[in-house]
Amino acid sequence: MLLIVVALLGLAVGSFLNVVIYRVPRDESLIHPRSHCPACGSEVRNRHNIPVLGWLMLRGRCADCEAPISPRYPLVETVTAALFVAVAAKFGLTWELPAYLYLAAIAVALAVIDLDVMRLPDKIVLPSYAVALVLIAPAVIAHHSWQQAGRGLIAAAVLYVLYWILAALPSGMGGGDVKLAPLLGFYLGWLGWSSVVIGAFAAFLLGGLVGAALMGLRRAHRKSRIPFGPYMLAGAFLAVFAGAPIADWYSSLLVPTV
Question: Boundaries of each Prepilin peptidase A24 N-terminal domain copy (predicted)?
Answer without folding.
Answer: 8-91
